[in-house]
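Quick one, T. Sequence first:
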Amino acid sequence: MKGLLVDFGGVLTSNVFDSFRQFCRTEGLPEDAFVTLFRSDPEARVELRRVETGQMEEAEFSRRLAGMLGVSDNEGLVDRLFAGIRPDLPMVDAVRTAKRAGVRTGLISNSLGEGRYDRSTFPELFDAVVISGEEGLHKPQPEIYRLGAERAGLPPEECVFVDDLRENCEGAEAVGMTAVLHRGADTTLPRLEGLLGVELSRT
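Structure tokens:
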């Protein structure tokens, strides 16, 4: 494999679902209220896809989401949702190491509104960047994976894709990529080392 394409939230950061649960507890909601909403309500999923693909402004999404969750204050709602995430340094270091070793690296991320990226790190981490809200595409649509591979200068079959959501991994596999379902650096990094032939873990 010559390319390493990764998700952002939940792969290069700590677990986003832990942050969502923290948000719900702070707001006095059942801790799985946010996740349950999008799993059970088709209308909510439509709203999510609209903001992910740039068809809806973050402020409007926040207003609608607050209503769906029964939260009185929608100011800075998306920031509050992601307040609990932190960089996953072993994963960030692994992408940086892979790039320095000559592996083509890229980001394929579904953004929630403006996104919460430290773009100053992009040049040292990625050869290619694909963010859903900037492209009008979202995972698991096949086009977003093909665009990521194209920008990395590789066919999909030569790319490894890492995501913390099974449906997004299945979308990558559907276009010919090898997918790794991320459950932590301790299991993901050995798998990537075997696929890429590059030592990524710090001893």
